[in-house]
């Protein structure tokens, strides 16, 4: 797996980021409440949630675009059905004249 190989390679160096104070407070509160063992676990859970939510949002956005496409195709289908009915009516008229 490419993702796992990249993850193992990146884990050799510790990663550090400067967080806003309000986020640090929330992190420490989550650990102090016993919900998480350490701040690393909180950050990992938050990032997992973020990426899962991001994927879900993308799917929802794609679904909305597909719904628009379906509505447009349904409208085009209705127009084509009306045109087909008109042509069939014209054929009947022409055939009755024979």
UniProtKB/TrEMBL annotation:
Keywords from the UniProt entry: Coiled coil
Gene3D superfamilies, sorted: Antitoxin ParD1-like
Top-level taxonomic group: Archaea
Coiled coil: 56-97
Alphabetized InterPro entries for the sequence: ParD_sf (IPR038296), Ribbon_hlx_hlx (IPR010985)
GO biological process, one term: regulation of DNA-templated transcription
This protein's record includes keyword Coiled coil: yes
Protein name: CopG family transcriptional regulator
Origin species: Methanorbis furvi
């Amino acid at each position: 797996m490419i993702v796992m190989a990249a993850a193992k390679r990146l884990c050799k160096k510790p990663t550090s980021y400067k967080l806003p104070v309000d986020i640090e407070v929330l992190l420490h509160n989550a650990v102090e409440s016993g919900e998480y063992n350490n701040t690393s676990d909180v950050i990992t859970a938050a990032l997992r949630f973020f990426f899962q939510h991001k994927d879900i949002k993308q799917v929802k956005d794609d679904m909305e675009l597909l719904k628009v496409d379906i509505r447009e195709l349904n409208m085009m289908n209705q127009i084509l059905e009306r045109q087909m009915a008109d042509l069939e009516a014209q054929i009947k008229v022409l055939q009755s004249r024979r």
